[in-house]
Write a structure and sequence with these properties.
Blueprint (H helix, E strand, L loop, with lengths): L2 E5 L2 E4 L4 E8 L8 E7 L6 E7 L4 E3 L7 E6 L4 E6 L8 E8 L9 E3 L3 E6 L1
Parallel strand pairs: 2-11
Antiparallel strand pairs: 1-3, 3-8, 4-5, 4-9, 5-6, 7-8, 9-10, 9-11
């Protein structure tokens, strides 16, 4: 069974830092088209935060660019999200995602259960 397990969330002060982890099992992250982090705040839609492709290319939402960094450790089969200079608007549940893209993606789309991040202002 495929599992994505997020950890590292918690309560931090504005301006602080937090590092989230997504430990994958049942899949090898280096074979996945796109690994990503999403977040959902209360009363809002889930939004894309950052992605890293199979080839190692990264992309970020404008709201987090320059503050967040997505990375992976293939040996540990784990994806990370380093969050710096946190703002109150970063408060949300953060979800890890593994997705196949295009005809060769075979509709793969797996989600973790999320880890909460609360930034006090």
């Amino acid at each position: 069974q495929v599992q994505l397990v997020e950890s590292g969330g918690g309560l931090v002060q504005a301006g602080g830092s937090l590092r989230l982890s997504c430990a994958a099992s049942g899949i090898n992250i280096f074979t996945v088209d796109v690994m990503g982090w999403y977040r959902q705040a209360p009363g809002k839609q889930r939004e894309l935060v950052a992605t890293i492709t199979r080839g190692g290319n990264t992309n970020y939402a404008d709201s987090v660019k320059g503050r967040f960094t997505i990375s992976r450790d293939n040996a540990k089969n784990t994806v990370y999200l380093q969050m710096n200079s946190l703002k109150s608007e970063d408060t949300a549940d953060y979800y890890c995602n593994a997705k196949g893209v295009g005809p060769t993606g075979f509709g793969m789309d797996y989600w973790g259960k999320g880890t909460p991040v609360t930034v006090s202002s």
